[in-house]
Amino acid sequence: MKVVGVDEAGESRIIELPKHRFFAATSFVPQLASTPEKPHELIVAYLQAAREFRMARVKMA
Q: For strand 12-16 and strand 24-26, is the pairing parallel, antiparallel, or unpaired?
């Protein structure tokens, strides 16, 4: 497990599992900071990872 985001007080706010395909845990709600015009970076990364996973599965079939 790796801490990749902290708040102003240095408290852990985002962790990830580096060896996992896509695992991120937050103590905040990134979708609340998202709009269709400017989505939160974490949401964009998740959607990109999901698309890449899907494309890899389609190629395997």
A: antiparallel
CA 43 to chain CA centroid, Å, is: 6
> Whole-prediction pTM value?
0.72
pLDDT attached to residue 39: 96
Name the one residue in this structure whose structure tokens are 């269709």: 36
DSSP letters of 2-61? EEEEE-TT--EEEEE-TTSSS-EEESS-GGGG--SSS--HHHHHHHHHHHHHHHHHHHH-
Question: Domain segments of the chain: what residues?
Answer: 2-60
Only one residue has tokens 């939160």, namely 40
How many residues are listed for the chain in this entry?
61
